[in-house]
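Q: Start with the shorter request: fold the first protein.
A: Done. Sequence, then structure:
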Amino acid sequence: MLGQQFYHETMRNVIVAFGTLFNNIHLVRKNNSGTVIQTMKVPLAYGPKQKWLTRLDADANLDSKVAITLPRLGFEIQNLTYDPARKLNRVQRFKKVKSASSAANKLDTQYMPVPYNLDVELYAMAKNSDDALQIVEQILPYFQPDYTLTIKDMTDMGIKRDVPIILSSVNYEDDYRGDYGDRRAIIYTLGFTTKFYLYGPVTSSKVIKTVQVDQYANVQTEAPKREQRYTVTPNPTTADADDDFGFNETVSFFQDAKEFDPSTGTDKTTTND
């Protein structure tokens, strides 16, 4: 079972898709008369909340040219759990004929994927309440409580799947770092659960074009005589596994003691030691 290397980048694609949802949030600041004085795109990065808070502690007044800017968004993985409620039939398989001309007679198969839930937290950090509320208000209306993305799970197999992203919690934190005169950090923490599937390895095999069965009336004798051969081939013979095709069935009758040799593809006389 283990030992076959494969990596479909499924979790990576889910994480990238999650971040893409929040990479185009903008913030507008107005003066007392309602005139827009500043418009900015809220930066987004992957990383834990403690990373940004530590950076604030290191330069609370933001005097350094490389200081962290607020507002900003950050997200990180919290947990990964198996979801038995979405379990699929483990013996069913996906099938796809290879499109390359050199592998036209190859069939790729893959067993049904395994359901998992990925818990992700999104942090909205701002230095004043209005900036934080603007960010949160641009996110919450889209989750009731879920938002569904369509992701290419398995490009090689041509599989696309809807991935629900469920908003499970919203927490608020108003954190003053240091003395009274130091910087304020308002943090909204949004908890999400992403329901996706993990896929196993892809197995490649040749497409079966001929099935042949020899039938015997009595196999207890030293040299049993075959009575009938049943052969099935696709119609047309050039059909691939995903084509719409029929079958040609042939029945042949024998009264000899020969056996079919699959290594040579011919009938041979049975010899007894």
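Q: Next, the second protein, separately.
A: Sequence, then structure:
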Amino acid sequence: MARTETVEFTNMCMICDGSRVVVIDRKKRDWPGITFPGGHIEPGESFTDAVIREVQEETGLHIRSPQLCGIKDWCENQCRFVVLLYKTTCFDGELHSSSEGRVWWEDIANLPNLKLSLDMRDMLRVFKEENLSEFFYYQESSAWKYVLKQQNGEDMKYDHDFWSAIDTLVSSGKIVIDRPKGSTHPRFPHIRYDVDYGYIENTTSMDGDGIDVWKGSLSSVNVNAIICTVDLLKRDSEIKLLIGCTEDEMKTVCDFHNDSELMKGILIRREVE
């Protein structure tokens, strides 16, 4: 059995300044979207020198003491691709964009509401959670899946297919807001909607109508939470989607569905997380 393989190395760095991080809206056909700066490691170049160089080329910042916090890797076409994941709080210089894409400081808590690159939402966990060390892609029956590897060698199963499927459902339908913020229930005027409420056209929920959605004030069109409800009066249960909701709006929605003894709801946040 061969013990050597062709490997291509790249890197990525999370630059932190308090609650802010540097992001880049990368203009690449094969991996567009918002992510962290980084790039390829040149032949003969040290890993540390490479991430310092790539960050400076893409952002104008000179980072110091980058700490390796994990890797992302996969095998394809007889080659292993390895992305070395770094983070640092030490830097100087002035932030400026490059031909690779626009860069700016972003609150890390707001990242899930941005148009992130594919799998970036889940890869953030390796940057943030000390017990995680590897984001590993693998193929199963021609489908690409991944697992997060913990430092103790155990796998942390994180099935992003559920959230991806919901995003696909939302993007393929039209959101109709029939009860805008500030309006009241058509039959029960004492019920007020403090967040836009509506449904997705051409979908079917458990009650036979379209899937209900709460649309928050953020520009994001990604689902950042769901709420599972039980209505004892109607004797039914439903799942409602929260799209682009702030923390305050999620609390408002949760309070709405727990306003009486006959209706209860549990909020499930989408992890970045």
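Q: Describe the second briefly.
A: The helical segments are 47-59, 120-128, 161-171, 247-256. The radius of gyration is 22 Å.
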